[in-house]
Design brief:
The structure holds two protein chains of two kinds.
Chain A (H helix, E strand, L loop, with lengths): L4 E5 L4 H12 L5 E4 L7 H6 L8 E4 L2 E4 L1 H11 L10 H27 L2 H21 L13 H6 L2 H12 L10 H11 L11 H21 L6
Parallel strand pairs in A: 1-2
Antiparallel strand pairs in A: 1-3, 3-4
Helix pairs in contact in A: 1-3, 4-5, 7-9
Chain B lengths: L9 H6 L8 E4 L2 E4 L1 H11 L10 H27 L2 H19 L15 H20 L10 H12 L1 H6 L3 H21 L1
Antiparallel strand pairs in B: 1-2
Helix pairs in contact in B: 3-4, 3-5, 5-6, 5-8
The chains are: A alpha+beta, B mainly alpha.
């Protein structure tokens, strides 16, 4: 049927990785187009003029951007191995938790990594509050999707890889195994699951990348701290 | 069920412990929060008058633009309302530019949903109402009719629909409320 599926991604984008996982879990053949985000291709800019970001899924020439939107599109178009539950209430809860993971968990953990001093302390407190909700949600389940990986697992999946990288760089614990045993255990199970484990970006490259981001953030905050609040 | 937000009911806190906000839909005793999540749930449970299109690609476009409005238009609009000086000027500029981008999603149609309103109209329609009222209160231009003639027209048509009219809060009460809120924000801004 001449299905053409292309995924514009970068080597390290955790958002694009969600789509890699979704396509591979469903066994969909696709072509990966790796972008250098410091030098975006004309095609990327044409396919995602609004945000100019990855991931972009191009299906039979039609582009879709924003990882959550792409995940839902994939689930609606290729119905094998469903990512979202069937029941409308369960689907709504999955969407609710996905949004929570993105708006609250990701934001607070990123701040805990990139900020310093008081801002970092506050971010760590916020992150712990948010993780408590996830820990509660994990009760009685192996994955957020239940017995097998689902939509919320894919959305939160970055946690299973990036948190240990962040912790190594800043020398602080973000997801404490004692405080969040179920979440910690999910992180291990998810990271080592088939398909997931085959697609993590190289750890040493990630450490270099995020250390550089942190160094740049520290440098820019100290140069502007002459006019402190 | 009406909530008085400075004084949240125990039921609200029980039904939405994570965010403690409205809206919360409770269907057969089961609560749901987050407005776009609720709208999709409603569309899946009550299948008449569908809000989202049938085709996955068009559904994806509607979701994309709803997310764009929520992430790029709404925060800029709130900043244009609550900030002063240069911050306010920048926020209003960002809002107008992002509304221009949103306008492209109309693709020459009457409504985002086509001939009739759909998911995206419902997701973003309130922005027109809020901006129109509050650009006066905050003294900053939010809806530039020259810059966004098609979106301007759409806001108007949307707000004039009988079914929308029925649901709008009493406008005089809302204006008074927003004026009070703005006063509070200005006082807080003066203190920092």
């Amino acid at each position: 049927m001449g299905e053409e599926v292309k995924l514009f991604r970068s080597w390290s984008s955790p958002f694009a990785l969600r789509i890699v996982w979704a396509l591979e879990i469903k066994g969909i053949e696709y072509e990966a187009v790796f972008e250098d985000l410091s030098n975006k291709s004309p095609l990327l800019l044409q396919y995602n003029p609004v945000h100019k970001k990855v991931p972009i899924l191009v299906h039979n020439g039609r582009p879709i951007a924003e990882s959550f939107v792409i995940l839902e599109y994939i689930d609606e178009t290729w119905k094998q191995v469903p990512l979202l539950p069937k029941d409308p209430y369960e689907r709504a809860m999955a969407r609710f938790w996905a949004k929570f993971c993105e708006d609250k968990v990701l934001t607070s953990i990123w701040s805990a990594f990139i900020k310093q001093g008081k801002e970092q302390e506050e971010a760590l407190v916020a992150a712990a509050e948010n993780l408590k909700f996830l820990e509660k949600e994990m009760k009685g389940k192996k994955f957020f999707g239940g017995e097998r990986i689902g939509y919320v697992d894919l959305v939160l999946g970055w946690l299973a890889n990036l948190v240990s990288i962040f912790e190594e760089i800043i020398g602080l614990k973000i997801v404490d195994e004692e405080k969040f045993p179920l979440l910690y255990s999910w992180m291990q199970d998810f990271a080592e699951a088939p398909i997931i484990r085959d697609n993590w970006p190289p750890r040493d490259k990630m450490i270099v990348k995020f250390q550089a981001l942190l160094d740049a953030a520290i440098a820019s905050s100290s140069s502007s701290s002459s006019s402190s609040k | 069920m009406e909530e008085h937000l400075p004084d949240k009911s125990p039921m609200l806190l029980q039904y939405n412990p994570v965010h403690k906000k409205i809206p919360v839909l409770v269907h057969k005793g089961k609560p749901l929060a987050e407005s776009l999540v609720i709208i999709e749930y409603i569309d899946e449970v009550w299948k008449h008058n569908p809000l989202l299109p049938q085709d996955p690609y068009h559904r994806a476009k509607a979701r994309f633009w709803a997310k764009f409005a929520d992430e790029k238009c709404v925060p800029a609009m709130f900043r244009a309302f609550s900030k002063v000086g240069e911050e306010q000027v920048q926020a209003a500029k960002e809002l107008r530019e992002n509304l221009k981008t949103l306008e492209s999603a109309l693709e020459g149609k009457q409504y985002f949903g086509g001939e009739t309103i759909g998911f995206l109209d419902i997701a973003v329609g309130w922005i027109g109402c809020w901006a129109r009222m509050n650009e006066e209160v905050a003294g900053v231009n939010m809806i530039d009719a020259e810059m966004i003639p098609l979106l301007s027209l759409w806001f108007q048509k949307f707000l004039e629909l009988p079914i929308i009219q029925e649901c709008l809060p009493p406008q005089d009460k809302l204006l008074a409320h927003n004026k009070e809120f703005h006063k509070m924000l200005m006082m807080a801004a003066a203190l920092t």
